[in-house]
Design brief:
Blueprint: H1 20-26, H2 29-40, H3 43-47, E1 49-59, E2 63-75, E3 81-89, E4 95-103, E5 108-113, E6 120-125, E7 128-134, E8 140-147, E9 153-162, E10 165-176
Antiparallel strand pairs: 1-2, 1-10, 2-3, 3-4, 4-5, 5-6, 6-7, 7-8, 8-9, 9-10
């Protein structure tokens, strides 16, 4: 029977070097940081402060146009996220709107939007925030905001439906400014 390997030797009973897993993990800091960041970032953290978005809206039978958003978010006592937002669409006057979103469970969100007809509902699943509401202009809106691992940007995909048909989409990149 062979003697057990000495501490600090380059082989182990299973043929792996002791500490190989630790060395592998230390050689992958970007991957580990991204995994930790995805676990730590919540929509409330991302949207607190100044964010800007830029994207394109595609409207059925009308073509596409640019859209920009300028937002300032803050967390209120009790955990409500309030976002004051200016939306600029090509060919339209800029408009202001205010979001107020509150966690109503571990992964559920409820709230209001000043240009929505009724409540905003939502769910957080991993790094994706899914929101739904009826626009005061009529369409049913669904929005998927995917927070990126860098903690500084997010992808926003919106669909607008009337009578069960998609009538418009918006693809936007949102970035933290501060």
């Amino acid at each position: 029977m062979a003697p057990p390997p000495r501490l600090g030797s380059s082989s182990s009973p299973r043929g792996r070097r002791p500490g190989a897993i630790r060395e592998f993990c230390l050689s992958q800091p970007a991957i580990l940081a991204a995994l930790l960041l995805l676990q730590a970032i919540a929509p409330e953290q991302f949207f607190a402060g100044h964010t800007e978005g830029e994207g394109r809206a595609h409207v059925i039978l009308s073509g596409s146009h640019g859209v920009r958003t300028h937002s300032r978010g803050r967390l209120e006592r009790g955990g409500a996220l309030v976002i004051d937002q200016i939306v600029e669409e090509e060919g339209k006057p800029a408009r202001r709107r205010t979001w107020r979103l509150v966690r109503s469970g571990a992964n559920r969100i409820t709230g209001t939007l000043s240009d929505a007809d009724g409540p905003v509902t939502g769910e957080v699943s991993g790094n994706v925030l899914h929101l739904a509401y009826r626009s005061s202009e009529g369409p049913y809106v669904e929005q998927w905001i995917t927070l990126h691992a860098n903690g500084r940007t997010a992808a926003n995909r919106m669909t607008f439906r009337r009578f069960g048909f998609n009538v418009a989409t918006l693809d936007e990149v949102i970035r933290r400014v501060e």
